[in-house]
Amino acid sequence: MKITVEKLCKLLCENDGYLILTHRHPDCDTLGSALALTRLLQSFDKKVRAVCSDKITEKQKRLMDGYTFEDTAQPYDHVITVDVATPKLLGSYESLKNDIFLKIDHHLNREDFGEYSYVKDDYASCAEIILDICEYFEKQGKFTLTKDVASYIYCGMSSDTGGFIYSNTKPETHLKAARLLGCGINACRIDEELHITKTPDCIRAEGYALSHIKYELGCKIASVCFDMKTRNELKISEEDIADIVDIPRAVDGVDTAFSIKEEPDGSYRVSLRSGITDVSAVASAFGGGGHMRAAGCTISAKNIDEAYEAVVNECKKHIES
Ligand SMILES: [Mn+2]
Questions:
Q1: 147 and 113 share a domain?
Q2: Which of 83, 166, 245, 301 could bond 30 through an S-S bridge, CB–CB 3.0 to 4.6 Å?
Q3: pLDDT < 50: residue spans in the chain
Q4: How far is the CA of 152 from the centre of ligand 1 (A)?
Q5: Which residues surround ligand 1, an ion (CB under 5 A)?
């Protein structure tokens, strides 16, 4: 059932024993939203914990002040998902898909799940919804936005807007960020961690990507592929190539960019970015999803060349000129 923010806040107050689920291959929007909501609910003396099916990176751990998102297997009563477009993205928690009490999300709503759902697909990040919740309780005199909570929200916003440069960034996005900066957060440190600092392994992976970009339709489509052999040879982890799609996307004239990464289980993980093409349609053709200009999916194929052909053909169907 779709609900208003008032109803959402009422539900949060009336219930207890929350398990907050983030999406697999977590980014700082899902993590920041989950931790900010955790701290808010804890301030109401609620029992709550936030978990992720995947291990979070060292960088993410630093940004989340050491919160690990590991499961403690304690009992819970209500499951909340944040920034999760489809239960498929819950990883090992997908088994809880029929027990979801509340879905809080900002992706295009292609799949209804959860007893209650609150979706703002015009928001650049899910974290902004958490800010709305905080502000609702502030108006009631029940909560004051702390520096910690403001930092986690800012992490989500800056992460999903690429440091406030993607087209999802609106005047309101900056106004909300300004409010968070007013709480005394260290935005420079957060942005440096999110967008500037890279590990030597990551730089090596980018070096490979820079010299292996493939083009289609002139240079309207650009991509980079990493099979397990390359990943092993270069000793690059998932974390090192998490944002590698930004490399082909950066080329002048490219509209649609994608990366394909072979996973240790033999599946192929695809990240898509675009200037104008609806890449969420490309991703959903393979059972994935996301936003108009940033989406992803996981596909099965005999090898990376077959995966490449499948994705590039789907991109050609959708490309806008
Ligand atoms: Mn998000």
A1: yes
A2: 83
A3: none
A4: 13
A5: 29, 83, 126, 160
